[in-house]
Amino acid sequence: MARVQFPAVAPFQSFVFAQYAVLIAYPMKRHFMTLEYEYYGKYDEKASGDVNLEGQIRDFLFSMELMFDYVESTKPEIMDAFLEKIERKYRNELENTSFVLENVGFDRIAEDQTLLESYPHFKDLGLRIIMKYIPLRESYVLSEEAERIRWIDYCRAKYRLLYHRITTLVEILGKEPGIEYYKDFVQYWGAELAKKGKSSVKYEDARENYVKAWKEGNAMEFGVVDMYDAAFLAKFDRCVSHESMKDVDDQELAYYAVCYPGPRLGEHIHENVSMRRSVTLFSGDFCDELRWDRHVHDEPDQPSHEFSRRLVPK
What we know:
This protein is 44% helix and 15% strand. By secondary structure, it is of the alpha+beta class. It has 2 domains: 2-46 and 200-309, no CATH class; 51-194, no CATH class. The strands form 2 sheets. Strands 1-2-5-6-8-7 form a 6-stranded antiparallel sheet. Strands 3-4 form a two-stranded antiparallel sheet. Strand 5 (220-228) and strand 6 form a beta hairpin. Helix 2 runs parallel beside helix 4, helix 2 (79-93) runs antiparallel to helix 5 and helix 5 (151-173) packs across helix 9. The longest helix has 23 residues, at 151-173. The radius of gyration is 21 Å and the shape is globular. It starts with a strand and ends in a 5-residue tail after the last helix.
């Protein structure tokens, strides 16, 4: 971990230190604050971690079912076309493959009638796409135990399923209307997740947990700096989520599949912590994530891109 120490600066007095481009005026709760940028690691495509695969697969399929239900209830006139087009995309994903669900222990999900009850063949397609991107030994059996999985494999499985959904909407509705409709769906998705319960993790614990998770196995190349009391900025120079989708045709739609839902879902399911980005790796050379305790700050200022660009390891 590299640390960069910036000179302390009084609020609204950054013009005195004009040579330090990173020192942009932000109202701070302390009269003086030293900004310390902590930088972690190098990105490694082989990075792996322990994943509760059964829980994650259920989440993947639950979001698929929510999308189908949302289209059926809000735009029934496009439902047939939506199902036809997305099925074609999923089958194209599986072209020249021969994944057989019986070869791995997906029985608990395959036989669960509460998941995609009205769309059983989409459950089969979804599970086989997951098998395509997450290599599983033939003796594998789903369990409550965590499985060691490469993060890039996990992300490819997760985000390919989402990417095909938004590209299908765009094909049917047009690009701008399709994106707007997808945005509305994300709000519906968040409201449905909130019905299952909300996270009450406090800001301090959330900050520690996020940094610990990002550091694991070098799946991210990033740094963090505390901008205010109860608010920190994370700058990502490389991110496994972005890396997993660099090969798809439409990078703007990849952004909507990968990055757009996070802050919006978080507003529904986190009681204490909010997050905002102003740029991501899909559109820029870094990603800036500002997280804050919403009980301390309403809408804190997002650091400028120039500020974030100057955050580099020394």
